[in-house]
Amino acid sequence: MSYKHIIVEKKNGIGTITINRPQVLNALNRETLEELITVVQELENDPTIHVAIITGKEKAFIAGADITQMQEMNTLQAKKFGGLGHQLMQHIENSRLPYIAAVNGYALGGGCELMMACDIILASTHAKIGQPEINLGIHPGFGGTQRLPRLIGKIKAKELLLTGDTIDAQEAYRIGLINKVVEPEKLMEETEKLAQKILTKSAVQTSFIKELVNKGINIDLPSANTLEIASFSASFATEDQKEGMTAFLEKRKPLFKGK
Ligand code: HXC
Asked: Any catalytic annotation for residue 113?
């Protein structure tokens, strides 16, 4: 499959998606969202891929949804556009693949929202993160009003949403919005190292864990714990459980097959 606004690379079990509209700081227009939805499904269905990385070309991660395109939208078009963004975020969240965001620069608006739909977030010291929609007379429309408070708590989230302020990577790390701050020239190396580490784990378990956390956080605790019991017991029907425990007892490293 060939794409116009994104670059896709598949290597050693890792699928890397690079948003490639540097002339507009990788702003997400309708076509880019559609391509992203397609590529996320493509990686999902590719048995050779076990971890995915999302990053941006040149100096930005994503400077938000495309304002030039949004400026022309009526209510119905805005609803469809918001729906498209939500569809993408849900595909990422519901994916069997752990998604790592490598935030190389601006992650604003829709960029911050895409970053938050990922499972692990590494950011370069050049990153600037925020939800500046309020400055455009709108509010976030790809899940920012919902995912941000779930990640950093509602007091801090409301401050960022109401002021539109942008924070740097260090502050994002301090408030628990990202996992790690990395020097720009080391960002992809560190991201790939992390992806490689996750690749050594059981792919069954990485998908179980992702599903449990993402589903569980949105439902009540007793129901979420019931989900955990179900997938914990299902783990004992996998080859990886046998391999993991046998390897421990044989004092060797496990070799997981994702089965
Ligand atoms: C369209 C954008 C853009 C965007 C930047 N550009 N962000 N075009 N949509 N979101 C374009 C600029 O118009 C400019 O084009 C080129 O990219 C370079 O940007 P500059 O502004 O010249 O760069 P700089 O001075 O370095 O400033 C960087 C910046 C600024 C601080 C990131 O570009 C900025 O504030 N961008 C908008 C950020 C934003 O508000 N994001 C939220 C969008 S709303 P030209 O042609 O002049 O070279 C959103 C809603 C999501 O995301 C939900 C929708 C349902």
From this structure: yes
Is the CB of residue 84 less than 8 Å from the CB of residue 126?
Answer: no
pTM for the complete prediction? Answer: 0.97
Q: Are 72 and 91 in contact (CB under 8 A)?
A: no
Residue recorded with tokens 């190292």: 193
Q: Is 133 a catalytic residue?
A: yes
| Sequential pLDDT tens for the chain (259 residues) | 789 999 999 999 999 999 999 999 999 999 999 999 999 999 999 999 999 999 999 999 999 999 999 999 999 999 999 999 999 999 999 999 999 999 999 999 999 999 999 999 999 999 999 999 999 999 999 999 999 999 999 999 999 999 999 999 999 999 999 999 999 999 999 999 999 999 999 999 999 999 999 999 999 999 999 999 999 999 999 999 999 999 999 999 999 999 9
User: What token pair was written down for 132?
Assistant: 């500046």
Whole-angstrom CA distances from 229 to 105, 207, 238, 259 are 40, 15, 15, 19
Amino acid, single-letter form, for residue 175: I
| Closest atom of ligand 1 to CA, residue 108 | 41
- 83 CB neighbour count, 10 Å cutoff: 13
Angle at 54 between CA 58 and CA 108, to 5 degrees: 65
What the chain holds in terms of domains, given with CATH numbers, is 6-199 (3.90.226.10), 203-249 (1.10.12.10)
Mutate to test the pocket of ligand 1, among 23, 24, 25, 87 (most ligand atoms within 8 A of CB): 25
Q: What is the DSSP string of 142-189?
A: SSHHHHHHHHH-HHHHHHHHHH--EEEHHHHHHTTSSSEEE-GGGHHH
